[in-house]
Amino acid sequence: MIRSLVKDPLSYFQSYKNYFVAIYLAFLSFPASDLVFIFSSDLSWMRFATQAFITSGVLIAILWGFVSTRLYLYPEPFSLKRILSSPVRPIFLIYALYLVPMILGIVAGWTVPSAILTDPSNQVTYVLEGVMLPSANLGPILLGIGAVLVTAFILYPLAVLSRLRSRFKDKEVRQALRIIASAFGAISVTLLIGMALAFLGYSIRGSANLLSVALIVVAVRAFRKPTFLKSFLGVVPSLESSPTASHSDQTILIHGPGAEKFGPISKYIIDGVSQHNRVIYFHHDDETAVREGLSRRGIDLTKFTLKGSLRLQSLESIYPNKGMVEDTPLELAQELLAEAKTLGSEGLSVVLDYDDFAVRPLHKFVQHLTDPRWSSPDHSLHVLMAFDSAVFRGEEPSLAKLEGKIRTLDLSESMVTFSRTVGLSHEEITGRKLLFEFDPQGDSDRIFKSVLAESASNFERTVVFTRKGRPLYSMAIRQPAAKVFVLTSRVSYPKVENENLVLLPSYDTSLLLDALNKTIEAYAGSSFTIIFDSITHFIFTLGPERTYSLVRQALELMISDQITAIFAMNSKAHDQKTMATFENMFDQFQKSERN
């Protein structure tokens, strides 16, 4: 069983959280400097406490400006190396100008004697306490610099976050950014008022510090919201084909001979009914054989038929002239869609079980299958076209053209699924977290192929984390239902290549976990499989301890029983102790056989 993992589900956002921790710790120097003024009348200690106060304030301003800029540029990295190696961008210059009063404030506070007034006659009245005590006041130089600093502290992050906020439609993200910007804006105003009153001989620093710490807590709570972080930081390819892409609601199923086709067809029917669609099944086989095949796969034909959810009809009824391509099926699909909506259904799911039926020459039939009238503008018409693989034997150019326009699930080569190799049914293996220990000389390719085939045959999504050059990469990019994250050193931030392919920095585990987290959130409510290829790569690049932490956090994110996870690991590359360490993290492990 999976062991108990780190309790904080956002532990991989340490890079951002640490900035807030640093800002909070810097704020603690404010009440500490107050204590010096209250309990010590030594002028040198007062000067030092004021210098610490100034340094902490500058540090807070620098950190908050940096965080704001980094959030604005995300997912691009923001560092000195990035600034020096990239073309000059306006945001870089603005941030550099923002830093000018910060640097001047520190330099003046520590090097200019007149910047801090420590005359014994300088006293301030603590308003709430009602007492007058000696104090070190800011001189005109620091007051001028401080006014510019606080103004910059208010305006720059507020402007950056407001611009950032306009990019998002998500209400919670927009609200969180508003809260964060408002909290730090209020802190800035509080500090400015405190400075002005101190110059006039009145101190409210205790109250101002308490209010500032409270506002910091408010900002951190808004930033820590999981929904905000998932929506903002995660990078994930689209769930489905782009709505503007042609044939995005069509699927081609190529199957072998026999009744194995009824497995994926039954899953398609169940999915259609669960989405409140009406399902029409046009079959080429004898109807008795179709009914028997569907019943064996769990389809309650009587129930679905009486409810009007499913109707069986002969393929010949829409292709009356065998050997000829006509518009009848296309026109009928649109008529049936209108009828389904009239009867209260959300849409129409059509199964065209051609089996070995085809019209020659095949390239004309392919034109018919890719006709845009098989879809609807509102994506309420979905079509599954099932063919025996014999139809395309010797017709590879026509098949390639079809695959280029419509997503194709080719299950003809092997229907041996992964669950069978471990002695379980698909239902029993769903939700398990498995370690796949492979031998480089073994049959790992066959295992990966069976995992992809199982997901495809159940019309489930597959999410793959791998590298180019790996056999799994070649298999996954050919599978329409697979979303592939390619781990590479060519990029320093996530880069979307296409709707199903994203490049991720191979050394940045936080970005990998961000992508995983967003994927899980996006696919919530449906069963899918995640393949992680491989643990071995990370052990050799990051080290065993960091890899263990990465896998541990990934498993914590995948706690749902709707997520099946398979982590690959080269059993010949590690000693027994290392293998045992990772084996203990999983439900069970599967070993590949040597060829």
Average pLDDT reading: 80
Q: Within the largest sheet, what's the order of strands? A: 15-16-14-13-17-18-12-19
The gyration radius over C-alpha positions equals 32 Å
| Shape type | elongated
> Which class of secondary structure composition applies to the elements?
alpha/beta
How much of the sequence lies in strands comes to 15-25%
Query: How many strands?
Result: 19
Please give the count of helices.
23
The low-confidence parts are 1-14, 226-247
Q: How far is it from the N-terminal to the C-terminal residue, by CA?
A: 30 Å
Largest sheet: 8 strands, mixed
Measured as a percent range, the helix fraction is: 40-55%
Q: How would you characterize the overall build of this protein?
A:
The chain is α/β, with parallel strands linked by helices. The chain is built from 23 helices and 19 strands. The strands form four sheets. It has an eight-stranded mixed sheet, sandwiched between helices. A six-stranded parallel sheet has the order 8-7-9-10-6-11, with helices on both faces. Strands 3-2-5 form a three-stranded mixed sheet. Strand 9, helix 14 (362-369) and strand 10 form a beta-alpha-beta unit. Helix 1 (14-27) packs antiparallel against helix 8 (205-224), helix 2 packs antiparallel against helix 3 (43-73) and helix 20 (509-522) packs parallel to helix 22. The longest helix is centred in the N-terminal third of the chain and has 31 residues, at 43-73. It is elongated, with a radius of gyration of 32 Å. The protein starts with 13 loop residues before the first helix and ends with a strand. Residues 1-14 and 226-247 have low confidence and may be disordered.
